Amino acid sequence: MRVLGIDHVVLRCRDVPSMIRFYVDVVGCRLERSVPGIGLFHLRAGASQIDLVEAHGAPPDPGRRNVDHVCLRVQPFDARAIAERFARHGVEVSEVKERFGADGTGPSVYVSDPEGNVLELKGPPARPGGAS
Questions:
Q1: Domain segments of the chain: what residues?
Q2: CATH number 3.30.420.40 is the correct assignment for the domain at 2-55+66-126
Q3: pLDDT at residue 64 above 80?
Q4: pTM of the full predicted structure?
Q5: Quick check: bond before 76 cis, omega within 30?
Q6: Maximum pairwise Cα distance, the chain
Q7: Which helix or strand (DSSP H or E) is residue 87 part of?
Q8: What digits encode the pLDDT tens for the residues 10-34?
């Protein structure tokens, strides 16, 4: 498995509309896709994405974790080899699911680092539809 780069970062937000305005109008990203039913908004940031998700329950604050997860694009995506690699280090790997990312929808798994930060490992798109 080789890391190709950051696919996307997910930020938990209290006020998604103001965050969208900031990242689009100030930073220069583009709103690419939204799933309002689950409060998820995908912003294009070059070849990568910044995803904004509505923080349900307690709002994010400086004393809490506001980055939901970081996604690394990996190749090849061999779910069995990934699971075996992380198991050798005592790290559990989630089940494989198809998820949307910067370059389309493809397989991914989640793992946690020693500090509890969530890392998504994402393979190539089965259905292209990201970067355009």
A1: 2-55+66-126
A2: no
A3: no
A4: 0.72
A5: yes
A6: 45
A7: helix 79-87
A8: 988 888 898 898 889 877 899 999 9
